[in-house]
Amino acid sequence: MQTIWLSGAEWCAVLRIGLGLWWLESWRHKDKKTWFAGGGIAWAAGIADKHRWRVVRTGFDRLVKPRPRLMAYLVAYAELALGLGLVLGLLSPIALVAGAVLNLVYLVLMIHDWAEQGQNLMMALISLAALGAMSWQSWSLDGALGLFR
């Protein structure tokens, strides 16, 4: 594979790191006080209540609604962990799969909002490309530690 400036593996690492920075921005821009007080989950509950797919409404009501504080922390710290894992290249394949799953959850929840879909689809696509290209081969703790060869 011929590339400009960097090797193919290094370009894949750029994708992985960029995706990690995107997750860190998702963490950074949250109003933590409102989010952890249940604001984010309350907003999502309003979306789920009007969702066109019954399975989404039912799943949200059974899994998320009874645990708003736990879910708020889970979502926020998952975004932080994904960002750090991808930027540092630590447990990268796990972070890439988890990130793609989280983006698909967001995608399904926000199926009617095309503005959100672009971000979630792009992040999921980058996750899949970075996973398939084994983007942890360069510039990563995984590579330095010999993990996931």
Automatic annotation (TrEMBL):
Entry GO terms, CC = membrane
Keyword Transmembrane helix (UniProt): yes
Entry keyword set: Membrane, Transmembrane, Transmembrane helix
Membrane-crossing residue ranges in chain numbering: 94-114, 121-139
**Name listed for the protein in its UniProt record:** DoxX family protein
Q: Which organism is it from?
A: Streptomyces lydicus
